[in-house]
Design goal:
Blueprint (H helix, E strand, L loop, with lengths): L1 H5 L7 H7 L1 H11 L5 H7 L4 H10 L20 H12 L8 H10 L7 H11 L23 E10 L5 E9 L5 E7 L4 H14 L9 E5 L7 H9 L5 E5 L10 H14 L8 H17 L11 H5 L10 H16 L11
Parallel strand pairs: 1-4, 4-5
Antiparallel strand pairs: 1-2, 2-3
């Protein structure tokens, strides 16, 4: 075959012959280039170096998730790293977890180091589950600079088999993403919401705070009646209440609404909930899960509880490890022998 290709230049339509045997030619050039200068080797086959690289980049590597040769594209994740992502994404226990939580868990365990965008890219390629695209971010979102600067509160309805619809309440700190308190209220009456707020302030001794605390809620029962009366009775200029999405306060209450989404779609099991006591049990477990096992993107690899306890999020936390992993990945892929392009004959 090599002998035929070597003398094929005199045959009519030899370019088509060469094109159809591009993988064989590239492999041969790579082999001969060890003994003969690369440029001279290309000239033997009457192939320009530009044509050589164009052919080489078109050859698919079945060992690569991206179908790209590891030797010519050494910056892609290694086979081992792709396997780690695939195992983590398809692990049943991670089936409903956010990708950011899975990534930061892997980095904290030292199993994988890569950027978030790279992880998302490969996760979509190796995942056996459907990964939804993120929707547009809200135009106005609160970003606190300290603990207790903004406290979010909201309610949601949870259907049960025995007790009908149960109303659950969650109170959350904006800065740390920590769930401060949770509970079940008898109905939508503001009295029950006021009681939970009172318990929260007593639990964390917030009435002794010297900095402003803003309670953010929607226009429901958590924003009326006894809730308003309780706040006004505090007689403090350090505590105020704001209603989300109003002319006076443009910000959304998505911070707490996202928690209910996580509770229902990421944490709760698929089976139906039996009764009110089971809801109460799940809320307790969810608080521990959210505060100690989740890794929100904005916390850069810290849990809400760690930030609440004083740790400061650092977006460069894994920068050194990612840089080192990138270098090792490049060197390892350069030595790859997985396809017709990089395999030695």
């Amino acid at each position: 075959m090599l002998h035929f290709l070597f003398y094929a230049r005199g045959i009519k339509g030899y370019k088509t012959v060469f094109k159809n045997n591009a993988a064989y030619i590239i492999t041969t050039i790579d082999y001969l280039a060890k003994e003969i200068p690369f440029d001279n080797t290309c000239k033997i086959f009457n192939v320009t170096t530009q044509q050589y690289y164009r052919w080489k980049n078109k050859i698919k590597c079945t060992a690569s998730v991206l179908n790209l040769c590891f030797k010519t594209h050494p910056c892609q994740l290694t086979i081992g790293e792709c396997s780690i992502i695939k195992d983590a994404i398809n692990e049943p226990a991670n089936g409903r977890k956010k990708l950011s939580t899975i990534l930061y868990s892997l980095m904290r365990m030292g199993k994988l180091f890569c950027s978030r965008s790279t992880f998302y890219k490969y996760a979509k390629l190796v995942s056996e589950r459907i990964i939804k695209r993120k929707g547009k971010k809200p135009a106005e979102k609160l970003i606190a600079t300290r603990i207790f600067e903004y406290i979010h509160i909201d309610t949601t309805l949870i259907p049960t088999i025995e007790d009908g619809t149960v109303r659950a309440v969650i109170i959350k700190d904006n800065c740390s993403k920590n769930i401060l308190h949770k509970g079940i209220v008898e109905n939508g009456n503001s009295k029950w919401i006021a009681n939970l707020l009172h318990e929260t302030f007593a639990m964390y001794k917030l009435l002794n705070q010297n900095e402003l605390i803003t309670i953010v809620s929607d226009g429901g029962s958590e924003n009326k009646g006894e809730v308003t009366q309780w706040i006004e009775s505090l007689d403090s200029d350090k505590i105020k209440k704001e209603t989300a999405r109003t002319k006076e306060f443009l910000y959304t209450n998505n911070e707490i609404e996202s928690v209910f989404h996580i509770f229902k779609h990421e944490f709760l099991p698929n089976e139906k909930i039996t009764n009110k006591e089971q809801v109460r049990k799940y809320l307790q477990e969810f608080q521990l899960y959210n505060n100690n096992e989740r890794y929100p993107i904005s916390l850069h690899g810290l849990t809400p509880q760690e930030v609440f306890d004083g740790s400061i999020p650092d977006k460069n936390r894994f920068k050194t490890e990612i840089t080192q992993a990138t270098k090792k990945r490049y060197e390892k892929n350069k030595k790859g022998r997985f396809c017709d392009v990089c395999s030695e004959r």
